[in-house]
Amino acid sequence: PTILTELERGGIVVYKSTNAGGSKYIAECQAAGVPIPPPIFGPGWNFQGELKEEFISWNSTTDLWRYTSTSPAGVCLALPRSPSGSNQASLLGVICLGTETSKACFWDNPSGTSFTKGVPVDISQFKGGFDLVANGQGVCSDCHAGENPFVVHPDTSAFSGLTPSLKPGSWYDPLVAASWPQNPGPTGVLNGVASNEKCDSCHNQGYAGRFPDVSLALPGYCSSVLKNALDMSFPGNSPFPGTMPPAGSPARSEYNNHINKLIAACDNYPSVGEVVDVKFPDNPGLISPPQVIDPLFACASMIAVKGAIYNAKVTLFINGSAVGSLIAHSTVQENFTVPNLQVGDKVTAQQEFASATSAMSAQVIVKDHQVEYPAGLPAPTIEPDLIYECAETIAVRHVPGAIVTVYSNNGSPVSGSTSTGWTAFWPGIRPFTVGQSFTAEISLCKDTSPKSADAFAVAAPPTLPAPTFNPAAIYPGQQLVTLENLVNGAFTTVAEVGTGDLFTLTTPISWFPDADVATPLGRSILSGDVLSARQRLCTKGPEGETPPAGKCEELPAPKIQQPTAGDNFVVVTQAVPGARIHIYDNGGTELGDGSGNVITLTRVLIAGEAITAVQQIGECTGSTGYRILVGKKRK
Length: 635
Hints:
With 635 residues, the protein is mainly β. Helix content is 9%, strand content 31%. The chain contains 8 helices and 42 strands. Strands 1, 2, 3, 5, 6, 8 and 9 form a 7-stranded mixed β-sheet that branches. Strands 10, 37, 38, 40, 41 and 42 form a 6-stranded antiparallel β-sheet that branches. Strands 20, 22, 23, 25, 26 and 27 form a 6-stranded mixed β-sheet that branches. A hairpin with a 3-residue loop joins strand 30 and strand 31. The protein starts with a helix and ends in a 6-residue tail after the last strand. The model has no long low-confidence stretch (mean pLDDT 89).
């Protein structure tokens, strides 16, 4: 356990597999904060209805049953499947998720047996954990992958109102055998792909959930979940036309760039990268462009840019004319206020740093929201809807660029312009009290949406955890940090132990990326510095602390997603916040140099070639890099 803790403090992801079955597996799940359900079909379980849109066993009658637990917090779903007209469940899988620990456990009825629907059956009668491997009963985590373990069909009456309760606190971790997939991901393959409509506009953290890394051997997810949802793998006589994109969305063809990228990742030969020693020279004249965050709609007055290098000068252009510049202090999002956009406007961005000027970013063309939403602007949502007393901020998910108006207790409106499709707001009545209600509406041009559903503030937790830094270690030259393990809406104070408090921030979610420590500190992090963080809501919690900042030579290699042939970008999956990521080909030629999760390259990549990523913070450049082969399609 001590070694495990030190690995995790050092930023190394450790998956905790199991070799237990039967009662030992149940005990392991319980210890991991996963609820253990009472007998299925018995008291505590609720029948949610029949799944008419079942696309895995589409010729069976499939019911949905739910059990909700408060201690530990979590939910279990059971899917009894039976031949049409039968009351015998020949297939009965049970998945239980600890929503606070984000751990999940899997059980299935013993092969060759069936249970009578409605007759209580104890979980001990099921096969779980390593027993599923020993009995050859399929590979649960091959299909049940992604942000949470449940594959939920949209617009399904049986799931009505359930979706918020099915969300884990973070990327879920399956408690399964080591030989099974350990829920690789989340994928970043869509981050650099231009598309009229984006799958990840819904499939993102905190909303519909991110996709798994389909390039890392998830054939079940690719064929049985992804392709079936897209109606690409159904038997010829299937009665169901797929679920994605959901009803009411633009035509599927509008999503094709994202769909094709996911399918290409599924069909690639996977490659695992390796850490190598590097001595590649920096090309001082090369930096990669930032990216304009799309979509953009007419009448919007704010535009966001991501991927800027810390302290770079970023300039925004509309139809070739500069409309504003700023000095970047975030790789995630920098906002520009602009005159109201017009349909057809072409928006680009460029950055300057040291002696280099980037190429112009890919252009984003402004669209008409009435074409996108012919039935009118959709109502926004309060997201997340877990809001605590004593907090002062909430978040609204909405059409990007709209003016959002937030109401508290049906009054006290507060309005503001937006750039992206998710925005934090400070309502007119704060701090919040238990039972306080929140709604929101949006407007764009002359259109106004319906109001969102109400969200209500609930009692704050009696104790707060210590915030954590991700990664836990810090390095000389670092300017930004990412905070996690936050309570929604808590006020988090960050300090440098030898200097004192630096700043206090609040966010309506449980994490905060790119917190700028260098500006209040007056310098970048130095060797020996120690950062601490403490949060308060109605009460104060304990401090979380980093180890002392190490030396430059300890800066590790970053990690990137395996790219595919034809890509002109790479996706960064692990790096020090704010780091510059240098990308080199096998001959040592630098192809990209930028920050954030997408690095644009100077050329497209070739199948089978090796590329290497190296990270730099301040004047400190790592001595090791992460090398991986560009994917090629399976024949």
